[in-house]
Design brief:
The complex is a heterodimer of chains A (626) and B (671).
Chain A (H helix, E strand, L loop, with lengths): L4 H17 L3 E5 L2 H5 L2 H14 L6 H4 L9 E5 L11 E4 L4 E2 L7 H10 L8 E3 L4 E3 L6 H4 L17 H6 L4 H7 L3 H11 L11 H9 L7 E6 L8 H8 L1 H15 L3 E7 L3 H17 L14 E7 L8 H8 L23 E5 H13 L1 H5 L9 E8 L5 E6 L4 H8 L9 E6 L5 E4 L9 H6 L8 E6 L4 H15 L5 H18 L5 H17 L3 H5 L2 H9 L1 H10 L12 E4 L9 H5 L5 E2 L7 E2 L9 H5 L5 E4 L1
Parallel strand pairs in A: 1-2, 7-8, 7-10, 8-9, 11-15
Antiparallel strand pairs in A: 1-3, 3-4, 5-6, 11-12, 13-14, 13-15, 16-19, 17-18
Chain B lengths: L1 E5 L2 E5 L5 H7 L23 E4 L3 E4 L10 E3 L3 H16 L15 H8 L23 E3 L9 H9 L5 E4 L6 E4 L15 H5 L5 E3 L3 H8 L5 E6 L20 H11 L3 E4 H22 L5 E2 L4 H10 L13 H17 L6 E7 L3 H7 L4 E2 L2 E2 L3 E4 H11 L20 H4 L6 H15 L17 E8 L2 E9 L1 H13 L6 E5 L17 H18 L9 H11 L5 H7 L14 E4 L7 E6 L2 H5 L2 H14 L6 E6 L11 E3 L2 E3 L7 H12 L5
Parallel strand pairs in B: 1-5, 10-11, 10-13, 12-19, 13-16, 18-19, 21-22
Antiparallel strand pairs in B: 1-2, 3-4, 3-5, 6-9, 7-8, 14-15, 17-18, 20-22, 21-23, 23-24
Helix pairs in contact in B: 8-10, 8-14, 20-21
The chains are: A alpha/beta (626), B alpha/beta (671).
């Protein structure tokens, strides 16, 4: 039990000492991507190999007073390079092995002992045709600057001593040496902007709540990460839960909240487990509870598991959900910082925002402002996915260009295909095209381009992507996830989806494009909450940048990328057709007719574009034309 | 206090709650579907969007007024949002306007007209939901619902019940009673305020005009109509007359032309209620129990007490409501005067109220399968019948009501407004206690608009502590204070609807609800003033009724005809179920609770064991075995009630003990 700041410092020093004394480790990435490709089995095999050779050390032993030797295997949070998982990193060398299998355990342990890397397991850059030994030298990592993800992937997430050894809770120690006002001021000075997508300065929220008198104030961490394909917050909570706790502790102290809630999706069971465990650890050490470190400040944390409604990521709906009511947004004002949870002043910050706080308090606001761009200081995490070589979790300084992210870090478009667009900011964001590749990624630049940074989902699309289908996909998502409260969002998204459905099925008209824009602008202006206000973005931005592609669908009745089934056309290449009648027999709607041994003909009016004819033809005589 | 600029005009504001109110006070009718000053701000319809300089586009309903705001209520962008929103709403709305009872009073229709929506470009309603006509009072048509949530908030915030809420999300969202049940199967008290506030035809008053016409056009049926007090000051609104203008004479004339045989006044039985209820009240005050005395004229309030506060059932006045007193006297006494069989008499009430439809169907008010009141029509329905008859109502020559039940005092007339029952009873109580008639303005303290009005009034030596409530959420609050001992009162008048019966859901749909209610209540008070008599006791026809039929207030005869008792509706409606019923009168009643908690603790197995052993012991003839729904002692279940003995924690092993008790109660030799 830590009773004073001094106690904390002593424990931290001890942890650091123990950790440094014992450095040989094999860190197996146990993030979502690697786990899906068998990381758990890889970990087990390495552990068994170490045990067999009597080299096994554990995290627990690392921090014991007795000297220990051997190698510590550990399952870490996401190391980021999901494309090449399962990942295994050797410490202290920093050697990174990619696409590891259970058969590699022996070689890996050998290499750690000998210092000679297993070359077949090293990352091979496909363009440069060279392999990299050290993680830090791989372009994917080299160009990142990891602040919030600093520990994610290198520490054991379920032991607070791992975090303390890496300077954990030092931001909190610094905060405690100041008054709450000064803490809020530091965050204000840092100009940290909300990482949930809105970009509202966190310090402003804090100072409003701090300045509102109330018997009780609350802090809420919004961990309801719901964008399709986004896993930044999840990785952070799974890989470095104490960073979030520390951020919340500082925020609670700054605004005068004694109770904090973490609103986390129930679909993130591992994150929930890790957080619960971290809270227990912090409580048992006295870092959470009453009169923390003798400061007189008390703070407790509760976890609220969300039931999976996307709209509950919206502040007021999230509050309603915690209060046990239907998760529907409420009109503002009053803003939560004035009247939020149970009508008390409440600050709601996103996971990544709070994860920046410990470093800001530890290194100062000036340090933070030196990162990123002037209007958007700091870094931003992105979940890179889609048709890009290196999918994964990255953290880059704000203001990095899209080109650097997609090409330098992401390794370019998969299979050297042509770049078409990126969808940024998930269903609330917009599409950016090749002309935006040199756009700096920060709040304001993206907004001016009709997109938004969002929470950090970034999907790369190549030429084979149908942009109308992409718009339909996101509209389908928001339409399903609309809470149904306000008219523009409820009715507008439904009708927009109907129209998009019509277009991808080949029944669209040019008028439909006007209707999309008309409804879209009304939904954007008229909706009650952020979900509705941003729901038309994917449609409106693609209409702006890819109007020709929409026109192809509605005027020429063709899908240039050949994705939209409803717009496919099957024709028989007469010279190749032997007149065998196989296609006519396979056709479920009798759209094919002809005379044996003469070329057959497909009646386009009857054809349902199922492709059965093409599948059965032995002579490749049935051709699909876009 | 401050000044803002609205469409270029400098506008002062004072204590308005939001910019919308300021704009409306400035004479601009900014449209809304979901804003009502008596409900919480919901912000869903987005029709009241305005442009505020420096802030952009915001909804006026949830923007607080601030000094110096520069506002535009109309612009190309705002028109665009409003028109698209309307078009989107209409696309999902069943547009069967010609057959909709709200055609002409529908806000959606009105705004579609105002904004010149000529055709709907975006889609059609894709599903047809079944119409819920299960309620005796209301009809719910989800196909016409625009999801503004007004009904949800009305039921929750004003009535404190919460029968309706949202279910599902996105475009699948619906307003529905819990678990998709029908309105008739849930704890709806039938007040109909949801329908009164519904902007469209999604919630409407159940129309029963066809049945009325059938009775009127049947030559063998004598049709007797009673008109409630509140109807006379509101029905004129349907014919372009001012609200509050009393049109009793025109109503009587219209009904006669339509072919009704007798037209009477419910205010007459209100006078009768005053005498009966005052007698009851004075008795309670003398015995000091059970107090507080609750009025029971409002059927929604009665059902509310039955459902949520059965512990207060004895506090409810045993007096039937004026409507039911009328039905009882008409069917069982007046029919004899006319020399006809009660079966050939058809009693129709015209009420401002939807809950009265439910009240008339209550078991308590049926005699040999015929109801005392055969049919309840609302003000709206009568207006429709008058229009169907083709009468120029506003030009009708007024006629008087029939005798004997067509004569009322002012005391009976003010029953239609909140505080009216109390005032009428106080006037009479004053005379009973002091022997003198009170000053005309003696009890005006009970008048007003506040949801709860607490007044202490001195009558002679006695101080009467009174509470007058309208709105059931207010009643809940007060009852909780009474239960906790924070408040003690002698008399509690509750009317479910805001403003009392004049604000009933059967009344014509009002655009400005508060103003209309004020005018209607002024109308009733004016009527009281202009009538010659203000004391119910002075009503000569009431005296006549006592002389001929009842004797005196509180007599056995008046109890048989004018009083009743109400029962608990807690948890599950309906009676316990018969498992084995013996016809022997001496048989012992044994009830095994099969409510959720006892069931989970194995009461069903217990019931089976008991059934078997009763049979084995040859006691079947002597036992009435019933499955009961919840004895409300869930913690100590399973519960069994043997005769008057309540036994808790019963397991199948205890069955021999139960048999012993049964034998004891049957006075059989104990084995």
């Amino acid at each position: 039990m830590l009773n004073t700041l001094e106690d904390l410092q002593q424990l931290s020093k001890r942890c650091e000492l123990h950790r440094n004394r014992h450095q040989s480790r094999i860190a197996v990435c146990a993030g979502g991507g690697c786990s899906a490709s068998g990381a758990q089995q890889v970990y087990e095999s390495i552990r068994a190999e170490l045990e067999r050779r009597d080299l096994l050390n554990t995290v627990d032993q690392t921090f014991s007073e007795d000297a220990c030797s051997g190698i510590t295997p550990l399952g870490t949070g996401c190391q980021g390079f999901c494309e090449k998982g399962p990942l295994v990193r050797l410490e202290p060398s920093g050697t990174l092995y990619t696409e590891v299998s259970t058969d590699d355990a022996e070689a890996i342990v050998d290499s750690l002992l000998s210092g000679t890397p297993v070359s077949r397991l090293l990352y091979l850059d496909p363009t440069e045709k060279r392999s990299y030994e050290k993680e830090a030298s791989i372009p994917f990592y080299k160009l990142q600057s990891r602040i919030t993800l600093r520990n994610c992937g290198s520490i054991a997430p379920d032991d607070i001593r791992e975090y303390l050894a890496k300077g954990g809770y030092q931001g909190w120690a610094n905060a405690l040496e100041r008054t709450p006002d000064r803490v809020v001021q530091e965050v204000l000075d840092s100009n940290l902007r909300g990482r949930g997508g809105g970009g509202f300065p966190a310090g402003k929220k804090w100072s409003i709540a701090a300045g509102t008198d109330a018997e009780q104030k609350y802090l809420i961490c919004n961990a309801d990460e719901g964008d399709p394909g986004a896993f930044m917050d999840r990785s952070l909570m799974e890989g470095d839960p104490h960073r979030l706790l520390e951020g919340m502790l500082i925020a609670g102290y700054g605004i005068g909240a004694t109770v904090g809630y973490i609103y986390v999706r129930a679909e993130y069971p591992l994150a929930v487990d890790r957080l619960r465990h971290a809270i227990e650890e912090a409580e048992s050490l006295g870092l959470l509870g009453t009169d923390i470190l003798g400061s007189g400040f008390s703070f407790s944390l509760r976890i609220k598991e969300g039931a999976g409604a996307f709209v509950c990521g919206e502040e007021s709906a999230l509050i309603a959900s915690i209060e046990g009511r239907r998760g529907m947004p409420k009109p503002k004002p009053p803003f939560p910082a004035v009247s939020g949870l149970f009508n008390m002043p409440t600050v709601i910050n996103n996971v990544e925002t709070l994860a920046n706080i410990p470093d800001i308090l530890q290194h100062g606001s000036a340090w933070f402002r030196s990162l990123g761009s002037s209007a958007s200081p700091g870094t931003k995490t992105f979940a890179l996915s889609g048709d890009v070589e290196n999918t994964g979790l990255v953290e880059i300084p704000m203001g990095t260009t899209l080109r650097e992210l997609v090409y330098a870090i992401g390794g370019g478009v998969r299979s050297n295909a042509d770049f078409k667009a990126v969808q940024i900011g998930g269903p609330s964001g917009g599409c950016l095209t090749a002309e935006h590749l040199d756009l700096p990624l920060d709040f304001d630049s993206l907004q001016s381009a009709g997109a938004m940074i969002g929470s950090g989902g970034l999907v790369v699309m190549d030429e084979a992507t149908c942009i109308v289908e992409v718009a339909r996909f996101f509209m389908n998502f928001t339409q399903l996830e609309s809470c149904g409260k306000c008219v523009p969002c409820r009715e507008g998204t439904r009708r927009m989806l109907e129209i998009l459905q019509k277009i991808v099925e080949g029944r669209g008209t040019t008028e439909d494009l006007d209707h999309l824009e008309e409804i879209g602008s009304a939904v954007r202006i008229g909706s009650l909450c952020g979900l509705g206000k941003t729901a038309p973005n994917p449609v409106l931005s693609t209409l702006q940048y890819f109007r020709d592609e929409y026109l192809s669908h509605v005027v020429d009745r063709r899908c240039p990328s050949g994705v939209c089934k409803g717009l496919r056309r099957f024709v028989i290449n007469e010279p190749l057709c032997k007149g065998c009648s196989r296609c006519a027999k396979a056709c479920p709607v009798d759209a094919i007719s002809g005379t044996i041994r003469e070329p057959y003909l497909i009646d386009q009016d009857k054809c349902i574009k199922c492709g059965a004819c093409k599948d059965v033809c032995n002579f490749d005589a049935v051709e699909e034309v876009a | 206090m401050g000044i803002m600029t609205i469409n270029g005009q400098r506008t002062t504001f004072s204590d308005e709650n939001n910019v919308l109110e300021v704009i409306r006070n400035a004479g601009i009718d900014l449209p809304t579907f979901c804003y009502h000053s008596e409900l919480s701000v919901y912000g869903a319809c987005r029709m009241c969007m305005v442009e505020v300089e420096g802030w952009g586009t915001v909804a006026a309903c949830h923007t607080p007024p601030e000094d110096g705001l520069v506002i535009r209520t109309n612009s190309a962008e705002l028109r665009h949002v409003r028109k698209v929103s309307l078009e989107l709403l209409l696309a999902n709305h069943e547009r069967e306007c010609t057959t909709c009872s709200r055609s002409g009073s529908c806000k959606l229709q009105d705004l579609a007209q105002r904004f010149g929506i000529e055709h709907i470009r975006f889609g059609q309603r894709d599903r047809k939901s079944p119409i819920d006509a299960s309620s005796p009072s209301l009809v719910r048509d989800p196909n016409k619902c625009i999801l503004c949530g007004d009904c949800v908030r009305m039921c929750e915030e004003v009535q404190g019940i919460g029968v309706l809420d949202f279910a599902h999300r996105g475009s699948q969202i619906t307003v529905s009673p819990a678990f998709g049940k029908d309105l008739g199967d849930v704890e709806c008290v039938n007040c109909g305020q949801c329908a009164a506030i519904c902007p469209t035809g999604a919630l409407t008053v159940k129309s029963q005009t066809e049945r009325a016409w059938r009775a009127i056009h049947d030559p063998d049926t004598t049709v007797v109509v009673q008109i409630a007090p509140a109807v006379r000051v509101s029905i004129g609104e349907e014919f372009n007359l001012a609200s509050g203008q009393s049109v009793t004479g025109q109503i009587a004339a219209a009904l006669r032309i339509m072919g009704v045989d007798y037209v009477f006044d419910t205010s007459f039985t209100a006078d009768l209620t005053v005498l009966e209820e005052t007698h009851e009240l004075l008795g309670r005050l003398q015995n000091q129990e059970p107090l507080p005395h609750f009025t029971s004229c409002c059927p929604a309030w009665v059902k509310f007490v039955e459902q949520y506060y059965p512990e207060f059932l004895d506090n409810l006045s045993t007096c039937r409501s004026p409507q039911q007193m009328f039905g009882s006297l008409a069917k069982h006494r007046y029919s004899q005067d006319l020399g006809i069989s009660a079966d050939n008499m058809y009693v129709i009430s015209v009420m401002p109220c939807t809950a009265k439809k439910f009240e008339a169907q209550r078991d308590e008010f049926q005699q040999s399968s015929r109801a005392d009141v055969d049919l309840v029509l609302t003000t709206q329905e009568l207006a429709r019948m008058i229009r169907e008859e083709g009468l120029a109502f506003e030009h009708l020559e007024p006629t008087s009501m029939d005798m004997p039940f067509g004569f009322a005092t002012g005391a009976g007339v003010i029953f239609g407004v909140t505080g009216g029952v109390s005032e009428a009873v106080l006037r009479h109580a004053h005379e009973e206690i002091t022997g003198r008639q009170p000053q005309p303005k003696a009890f005006e303290a009970v008048r007003g608009n506040d949801g709860t009005r607490r007044v202490d009034l001195k009558i002679g030596e006695q101080t009467l502590r009174l509470a007058v409530v309208n709105g059931l959420a207010q009643a809940t609050e007060l009852l909780e204070r009474i239960k906790s001992g924070e408040e003690s009162i002698d008399v509690l008048e509750v009317m479910a609807c805001p403003g009392g019966c004049i604000g009933g859901a059967g009344q014509p749909i009002a655009n400005n609800r508060q103003q209309t209610q004020e005018r209607r209540s002024n109308g009733l008070y004016r009527e009281d003033k202009t009538l010659q008599l203000h004391q119910s006791k002075q009503n000569p026809m009431v005296r006549d009724v006592y002389q001929r039929w009842l004797g005196e207030p509180g007599s056995a005869k008046s109890h048989a005809l004018l009083h009743t008792h109400y029962g608990s509706r807690r948890r599950i409606q309906g009676e316990s179920m018969d498992i084995a019923s013996s016809k022997k009168p001496a048989a012992v009643e044994v009830q095994v609770c099969v409510g959720t908690s006892c069931y989970l603790k194995g009461s069903l197995k217990l019931l089976r064991t008991l059934t078997d052993q009763v049979e084995a012991a040859d006691l079947t003839e002597n036992v009435k075995l019933r499955g009961a729904f919840c004895c409300q002692q869930c913690a100590s279940g399973p519960m069994v009630i043997v005769g008057d003995d309540v036994v808790s924690g019963v397991t199948p092993g205890h069955v021999p003990d139960l048999l012993q008790r049964i034998r004891e109660q049957l006075e059989l030799p104990v084995s």
